[in-house]
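hiii, so i know i said id send this last week but things got crazy w the move. better late than never?? heres the sequnce for the chain we talked about at the cafe, plus the structure i predicted for it. fair warning i was half asleep when i ran it
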Amino acid sequence: MTRLHLFQELVATYRKYGWELKGVLLTPTTQAELSGRESDLAAVPVKDSSFDALWFSRPSHQNREAWELRLLAETQYALFESFEPDETEEQRDEMKQEMEARMRDYLSGGTGERGH
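okay and structure toks below
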């Protein structure tokens, strides 16, 4: 399956369940492959990365907000975090950076779990 097809399939599946694409982490190779071929990329922040992943969010119970970092690969792997309504944007950004670090750790053969 091409990266483009996988990207489109993942976005469609997540949307079906109420998730919204919020950001994308892409290697230079994948960014070049998707550039100009996928309209969803123009609507969200795209960040250079050592791995390919998609950020999704949706409302959760008790006014919380759920975020998921989904690896852009046929292997199903994602990290999930739920944020309290009173958490600052700085706190949320810090946790999302930690999730990106855990994803890198997972891809390098680690467990994907930091501090546990």
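btw The chain has one domain: 3-107. thought thatd interest u
miss u guys!!
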